[in-house]
Amino acid sequence: LESVLRAKTGGLIVVGYSPEVMELVDGGFSINCDFSANYLYEFAKMDGAIILSEDLKRILYANTQLIPDSSISSIETGIRHRTAERVAKQTAKLVVSISQRRNVITLYQGNFRYSLKDISVILTKANQALQTLEKYKSVLDQAFTNLGATEFEELVTLHEVCNVIQRVEMVLRIRSEIKRYINELGTEGRLISMQMEELMTGLDQESYLLIKDYVREPQEEKIKEVEQGLRKLSNEELLEHHHFVRLLGYPYSSTLMEESISSRGYRMLSKIPRLPFLIIGNLVGKFNDLAHIAMATIEELDDVDGIGEVRARAIKEGLKRIQDQVFIDRHI
Known about the structure:
The protein has 16 helices and 8 strands. The chain folds into 3 domains: 115 residues, DNA integrity scanning protein, DisA, N-terminal domain (YojJ-like (1), CATH 3.40.1700; 138 residues, Up-down Bundle (Ferritin); 64 residues, 5' to 3' exonuclease, C-terminal subdomain (DNA polymerase, domain 1). It is α+β, with helices and mostly antiparallel strands. α6 runs antiparallel to α7.
């Protein structure tokens, strides 16, 4: 596509062969050869459209004229782009239109339209987004640490929980934006992808456990419902805590926001090495919250299904280490 763009020949490419597509095709040549970038570039020198297989492994037709239904509405003004938009709407296939004069590649599929930007522009935006992600992730890590300290002190409020959930969702949205840049960059985005994955390691799991700690009904269906609800919030709604309170299943009131709320302890217990999630579930089922688990004696922990004396001691010592660490690291 870059070669076609630089050659200023223009091009129209349909990805996918189907009866709906063939109804629109008039003339051209049946090629049916293996796909290669050089072949595509050479065929684009001809005026007609190129039709590729759905898996992009074969070039099926070249120099074809596409005749879509003229009654389909189009916002485009150029003939090539108008044809591309109508074909995409009529067949639901991906259509790529390469402008001859404006040096723009536009993608169409159904009612979706997207103009590809220059790689240098996308790289700059991706790097800016990555720097923003790094700053937001640093603040989020500190928020998790502060929350952990207040969980051990039994001083957590719904307001603090909403603050952390809000920051998690902000970081996840920045990640989604970077993923779009990576998809557009292709192989050029490999290093950015590696940096992003390094920054985001473990966040999805920690976010899930945070919701499981504080949602009113900790069933899997409810947790998924909360996660989906968070994704649907607009950027403006993301700034208002009452939306988080509603999703967690609590009635919203200013007094409730400042009342203490107990963590079930899934997130903190998951930080203890080699502690299976099944055992964590048994612990929470027996003691109900993190505070009671932390105060339990080794004998009381030993009574829980799946926990022997050695594991009970490891849990007790592990929670003590985590507590000491979050007290040292938190910002007051």
